Amino acid sequence: MCGIVGYIGHRDAYPIIIEGLRRLEYRGYDSAGIALYDGTNLNVSKTKGKVTDLECRIEKEITINGTVGIGHTRWATHGIPNDVNAHPHYSNSGNLVIIHNGIIENYESLKKELIKRGYSFTSDTDTEILINLIEDVKQKENVKLGKAVQIALNQVVGAYAIAVFDKNKPDEIVIARLGSPLAIGIGEDEFFIASDATPFLEYTNNAIYLEDGEMAIIRRHKDIKIRKIKDDSLVNPYVQELQLNLEQIEKGGYDHFMLKEIFEQPRAIKDTFRGRLQTDKGIIKMAGVDDNLEKFLNANKIIIIACGTSWHAGLVSEYIFEDIARIPVEVEYASEFRYRNPVINENDIVIAISQSGETADTLAAIKLAKSRGAFVFGVCNVVGSSIARETHAGAYTHAGPEIGVASTKAFTTQITVLTLIALKLAKAKGTISNSDYHRNLSELELIPKKVEKALLSDSHIKTIVAIIIIAISMLFT
Ligand code: GLU
Q: Domain range for residue 122?
């Protein structure tokens, strides 16, 4: 995971891109770089290290003028983290630059072909192969940049979010995605590009999330054109109004995002209950479940697919589903599920869990489950994300943006949602007694307060931490 930021419009691109890269730092990275077009020259500066290191270097190396540019934070997959391997990468002619998140799996065979055609490479990255492939197609086929990107991507196996710029066509940026997120912010006669919406939130609330397999040409003073990479068909852009605000993504007085997010848990759980847990009426309202209640009630088994922390939330919920709703549950790592030949029967329900709603393996597993005729229910945090769109129905957690890489409130709200579903199904199936059901509702209601109390007893937590920080292993009883 790492970051892409871009801008084209009427403002200075440099501060927008640098600040945007800083906002994406939470994703982790080992190097950073920027390309700016100042009206005459295409200036690239990049370095191993942090965004602050990049700033120091830029001041010495390049002019920071220009109203169009792209920036990148790299998490090395091909070639060590160093200045040369950092993005952006030039094509051999020096006319094109690219930034890329992801992996080009067939880069070796493409490289061999390009070497035969006279290309040479300065970095060890798969990304430099891609930009030269684009250049080669552009020259060989005599096509515009957008078309060259499309033809090249159809030869690529792998995952990518890319932004490509041509200094001879400085009024456009071409972007594309497959398996790595990319959002476009739409301002007044200006566009922003980013891996998520946080870099452009202070400028606009209107965003388009590119879907897998789509590319867009973003032109100054023109409407955005989105196409399918595979068959060139035009896609109607779906502009969403973002619910996030800047305050939500800033540290709010805490030293770290993670600390802030730990303390946000009571609020996040309350938000996840809101409108759903109606203790006074004795009901749990969840449209995604209500609309598909028959399917849930007739389910022979539930298969939960997820990765990382979401997988752990799945493991916790397995116990709850089986205990109170008496439905057998299998919890599976999405990356395993997608590469084997899973048995899915007509009456099985697949629940896919992901904080971002963009987890590539979970998305691929959803597609596989759907192709086998399964009903897929999504649990994710980011409204309008790919998983939210790809599933038949779902329930959002309302954790708010989670910036810290180690998950806190996203995990607790995932368990909150899954508990609500299990309890709702238990009631509908009659596998829980009336009194136990109502007692559970009342106890759930108390959870935010209890979490708050636990967080406030922070000297107690610090004592425990001092012990476990040096532990090699732990046994929970
Ligand atoms: N595969 C590319 C590289 O190693 C991109 C890595 C990334 O996603 O940042 O440079």
A: 3-248
Residue 242 lies in a domain: yes
pLDDT in tens, 153-211: 999 998 899 999 999 999 999 999 998 889 999 999 999 999 989 999 999 999 999 99
Mark whether 195 and 341 lie in a shared domain: no
Strand 348-354 versus strand 301-306 pairing type:
parallel
Asked if 120 and 189 count as a contact pair (C-beta separation under 8 A), the reply is: no
Q: Are residues 387 and 425 in the same domain?
A: yes
Buried b / exposed e along 97-116 (16+ C-beta atoms within 10 A): bbbbbbbbeebeebbeebee
Q: Are residues 204 and 290 in the same domain?
A: no
CATH number of the structural domain spanning residue 117: 3.60.20.10
Ligand 1 site, CB within 6 A: 2, 74-79, 85, 100-103, 125-127
pTM of this structure? 0.71
Q: Say how far apart CA 57 and CA 59 lie, in whole Å.
A: 5
Pairing of strands 301-306, 283-284: unpaired
Of ligand 1's atoms, which has the minimum distance to the CA of residue 78?
A: 4
Distance, CA 212 to ligand 1 centroid (Å)? Answer: 18
| Cα-based torsion angle of the residue sequence 406, 408, 411, 413 in order, rounded to the nearest 10 degrees | -150
> Are residues 37 and 133 located together in one domain of the fold?
yes
CA separation for the pair 324, 354 (Å, rounded):
24
